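User: Um, what's this?
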Amino acid sequence: MNSMKKIKIEKVTLNVCTGINQETLKKGIKLIKNLTTKSPVKTLSKKRIPAWNLRPGLPIGSKLTLRKKEAEDILKRLLQTKDNKLKKSCFDTNGNVSFGLHEYIEIPGMPYDPEIGIIGFQVCVTLERPGFCIKKRKIKKRKIPKTHRITQEESIDFFQKEFDVQLEAD
């Protein structure tokens, strides 16, 4: 196989979206900190939505990005929670994967914390190939050619080989 076609995990992003409730936001931050031992950042709203009492700059969630070995380790634990089964709809057309967990207590080795209660979060996995840096560099940025992009089928195949993931019906 061509070494430039080898797929790898660029990053895993953990996201807890809480809305305007600041108590739930503190619980979400503590959850991510307990799960990874790293401090997440707060996400801020960008729009004003009067019906939801949102205004620009209001903290509405928290997120944390993991890369390299940490990303693979946490992803293995999170996939065990889902019994290594994902729906085909979790995979997008660019090769990225997103799924949610309803309760953090289902994660192996994660004890129940009464201060947090029951809360869930989203997991987003971004895949890349060697050469994807051309879209991020400062000088002479370029788009990824169609032949080098990761398709949905390729990302499903990657997860089946690397993490023993089975597809379940939508």
